[in-house]
Amino acid sequence: MYTSRITGMGKYVPENIVTNDDLSKLMDTNDAWIQERTGIKERRHIKKGDGNSTAVMGVKAAEMALERAKVSKDDIDMIVFATLSPDYYFPGCGVQVQEMMNIHTCPAIDVRNQCSGFVYALSVADQFIKTGMYKNVLVIGSENHSGGLDFTTRGRSVSVIFGDGAGAAVLSRSEVDGHGILSTHLHSEGKHALELSLKGPSTNHWVPQLIEENPQEDIPYYPYMNGQFVFKNAVVRFSEVIMEGLKANNLEVSDIDMLVPHQANLRISQFIQKKFQLSDDKVYNNIQRYGNTTAASIPIALCEAWEEGKIKEGDTVVLAAFGSGFTWASAVMKW
Ligand code: ACO
């Protein structure tokens, strides 16, 4: 049995900064409301004409990760791409990345697990490495939210939260004993699928049907979020899945050197931090600057924590996520 280890991380966020004040020019909102409820000060949005898309941002993050891992694109055995905002309905972004980076005909998989997408993708990659089938897997989380949100007052409770960006990791067969991914833990509960969802356009909810189902709405194809219900479930599931990961490895909360939670909402992270009595230096947050970038949030945050020297060799790092599905997941690793 082999183990896998992150050998390189990369990130990319569009240059275009959108502050809360910028949003208040488009809709009835304000900086105080957004900061108080979510902790977000600004986020990045793709600008029309800047050449970015979910796949393009994924490539930029992936190139950085490969360079840092010192792994050639020719040595990539598989691509796993997590997103809820693919460039095309089909095919997925994984094959687009493969083409844009001129990677050979390795398998490319898209993971559709929203905010938990990166941890799910990491887990998929980990299984292929553990069995000895592959040596290097490129794992990407990328989102272009700004292209599909309602920036009018009607959509304000959702559109102020999300931002664009991408993060990537190269997961490689570990050469160092006792380092790497110790375990991953995945869960889902489909009965709450519609509490945080985008119905269409999809083959089951094509545009005429969406309009028929929502006669009062002029453009009914924006995401729906039952905010308070999501919040209540998130804090419970985050806690459970972190504890599950620790227990599986005979670790205590005090063994955590760095917790990188999905950047859903600063209030959720703070709730978890308080519950586990973790000091500020043991929980990484950057939602203030980027908003919620869904599948990209964990790899961007992990990359920045590592760049800032907040994660060191041998540290116990825990990733935890919760999101639409509902899905939730954790990964425990020795860095
Ligand atoms: N600006 C100003 N006012 C707003 C805004 C806005 N952007 N959005 C909603 N409001 C108003 C509402 O219309 C409402 O007004 P009313 O009282 O006159 O009816 C009032 O603010 C309160 O609205 P609520 O939806 O009850 O606000 P709440 O306190 O629940 O905060 C929030 C909303 C921030 C979404 C909260 O429910 C939350 O944090 N939920 C967790 C969901 C989350 O984190 N999602 C992230 C994505 S999912 C994920 O990553 C797991």
UniProtKB/TrEMBL annotation:
Pathway(s) annotated for this protein in UniProt: Lipid metabolism; fatty acid biosynthesis
Catalytic reaction equation(s): malonyl-[ACP] + acetyl-CoA + H(+) = 3-oxobutanoyl-[ACP] + CO2 + CoA
Subcellular location, principal: cytoplasm
InterPro entries noted in UniProt: ACP_syn_III_C, ACP_syn_III_N, FabH, Thiolase-like
A Pfam family per the record: ACP_syn_III
Principal EC category: transferase
Domain Beta-ketoacyl-[acyl-carrier-protein] synthase III C-terminal, first and last residues per copy: 246-335
Subcellular localization: Cytoplasm
Alphabetical list of Gene3D superfamilies matching this protein: 3.40.47.10
Keyword terms: Acyltransferase, Cytoplasm, Fatty acid biosynthesis, Fatty acid metabolism, Lipid biosynthesis, Lipid metabolism, Multifunctional enzyme, Transferase
Active-site residues from the entry: 115, 262, 292
Sequence segments annotated as region (ACP-binding): 263-267
EC number(s) given by UniProt: 2.3.1.180
Top-level taxon of origin: Bacteria
Beta-ketoacyl-[acyl-carrier-protein] synthase III N-terminal domain span: 109-190
Function: Catalyzes the condensation reaction of fatty acid synthesis by the addition to an acyl acceptor of two carbons from malonyl-ACP. Catalyzes the first condensation reaction which initiates fatty acid synthesis and may therefore play a role in governing the total rate of fatty acid production. Possesses both acetoacetyl-ACP synthase and acetyl transacylase activities. Its substrate specificity determines the biosynthesis of branched-chain and/or straight-chain of fatty acids.
Summary of subunit composition and partner proteins: Homodimer.
Domains as described in the record: The last Arg residue of the ACP-binding site is essential for the weak association between ACP/AcpP and FabH.
Family statement drawn from the similarity comment of this UniProt entry: Belongs to the thiolase-like superfamily. FabH family.
Protein name: Beta-ketoacyl-[acyl-carrier-protein] synthase III
